[in-house]
Amino acid sequence: MSCWNPDIIKRYGGHGPRYTSYPAASSFHEEITDQDYRDALADGNNAKRALSLYMHIPFCEHVCYYCACNRIVTGDKRIAEPYLETLLKEMTLKSALIDSQRPVVQMHWGGGTPTFFDDAQLTRLMHQTGRLFHLLDQDRGDYGIEVDPRTVTSSRLSLLRGLGFNRLSFGVQDLDPRVQQAVNRVQPFETILALFRSARDFGFRSINADLIYGLPWQSETSLARTLEQLGALDPDRISLYNYAHLPSRFKVQRQIDETTLPSPSEKLRMLTRAGSMLEEMGYQLIGMDHFAKPDDALAQAQRDGTLCRNFQGYSLHGDADLVGFGVSSISQLGTLYAQNARQIDDWQMSLNQARFPVRQGYRLDQDDELRRDLIMTLLCGMQLDLEQFGQHWQIDAANYFRAELDSLRPLLADGLVTFDGRLLQITEMGRLAARAVAMVFDRYQTPQTATRFSRII
User: What pLDDT does 1 receive?
Assistant: First the structure.
């Protein structure tokens, strides 16, 4: 399809934010206080907003050489218990200031690898969450967890389902044994297949598979084979991420032999073929690097205009207050972003003193708010009605964004967007470069500042 035009990918595939927030986290500063966080929780109570909970468990048993996440690699399971104890302290501290009637419509446990915790620890964390917060029964909430196929079994999946999780995200990355060996993530296809089958048997309603392209020894042909095998697993959603090789920033990536990495031209062929294959397999591009089946909740939400975006990526519950727990986690409470300390010692010290472990954050002003709304509307719905937008925000939107709309001319000429004076639409060809469209309306980004981010495509 025209969406996978290699010329457009090359022209607009530069660097830019992922827009899990606006402004991006690079704008966060250290002037956010404990009182700011308390005030934001109180505002959410007054507005009776629903809740989305995120638990960050940073531990991994094995190091993956491509990884750029905030994680701790260790085989020493004794480290898990003191972390869990501090996590429970944070939950108790924050829950005391949150109206217990606010429903938890979404919950996600990420990392690292949350299943680094053993069965008893997972059970304890979930039970304490249910005691402190209003979890929904009968599968009415969207409760997901990231799992490493190397460290879970069918019985562990059964436990997770029994605890109330109904969504799984598997870190597949690649199914070629040579690629797996090169990135130190060996997980045979048969193992992943068995886990997928168990997950279906246990009634998980959505299964996501993460893939990465640009890894050592990958090629257009090998990635196509991985996608063919993945088709047999029949995931509901697929994420296809671009590997960014930055060994100067992420020391573990120095374990990768750069001579085995695919060339930029090969990566371009990999992406275009993969995108076309996924569409032929029945998946639709939600945006950026996320694909979903047409009957998946994300695809349905995009069609009916309710799709949102937050620090958990595309979401069905972007209007909920996102409360983060654990080292480096980010909360989004109305107009406040607040990120926890990135070092475990700092995080634990704050909580031992009964203080919120906020390290940095950002409070949006009115211009930030309306630009966030505009950017998220474009990235989720692929269109924006300027007249309706202006009425909502009580502004003359066409005049307010006169300079930005004028800057869209090159994108209009290349067919990425259409604009009739009222309705701005991202075309089928433009969907893959939607972040480039969003950047036009980002007052914090310039070609110079954009280089700190990953590539758009």
Answer: 47
Q: Do domains 1-23+365-457 and 27-321 have the same CATH topology?
A: no
CATH number corresponding to 1-23+365-457? 1.10.10.920
Domain boundaries, given as residue ranges, for the chain? 1-23+365-457, 27-321
Given this model, what pLDDT does residue 14 score? Answer: 85
Give pLDDT tens digits for 202-238.
Answer: 999 999 999 999 999 999 999 999 999 999 999 999 9
pLDDT at 186 over 90: yes
Mean pLDDT of 38-45: 98
- Per-residue pLDDT reduced to its tens digit, 107-129: 999 998 999 999 999 999 999 99
CATH superfamily of 27-321: tm_1862 like domain (3.80.30.20)
Per-residue b or e along 263-280, where b marks 16 or more CB atoms closer than 10 Å to that residue's CB: eeebbbbbbbbbbebbee
pLDDT digits (tens, 9 = 90+) for 130-165: 999 999 999 999 999 999 999 899 999 999 999 999
Share of the chain above pLDDT 90, in %: 84
